[in-house]
Amino acid sequence: MNSVRNKWLELEIYVQRFDICTLTETKLDAYISFSAFNIINYHCNRYDRNSNGGGILTYIKIGLHMETIFNVQRKYRNFGLEVTIDVIKVFNPVASNAIVLGLYRPPNVKQEWFRFVNDLVMELLPYGNLIMIGDLNCN
Questions:
Q1: Mean pLDDT of successive 10-residue stretches along the chain, which has 139 residues
Q2: Could you give the domains of the chain?
């Protein structure tokens, strides 16, 4: 993405084409209010690093009955992961909930990052089926 600040109008139109959308490398910081990037009829889960790099925004259409898994999200953010973690509740006895895991891995992060992500995935699996969206910079 490489910053959403000067591309917001185009991104708002782009996001509304999807029920679930994750944007990485948003380059937002605490000086930008959360309401500045709200989109009508979407829940926004946002994590900022700073205006020089990183950051992640995950949008989920409100009609999908989602909840943020704050305790797990906070735990792995404290380990240094740039993540958003939301569960989409499925009200069907033969279907499972869906976990939307938004991830951004900066290119220069140590190998330890993958161990934390593995632990996170293992912790999330009991919540439902996992959908991973983002930029892992695994090149």
A1: 70 94 89 83 92 89 95 96 96 89 92 94 96 89
A2: 5-135 (3.60.10.10)
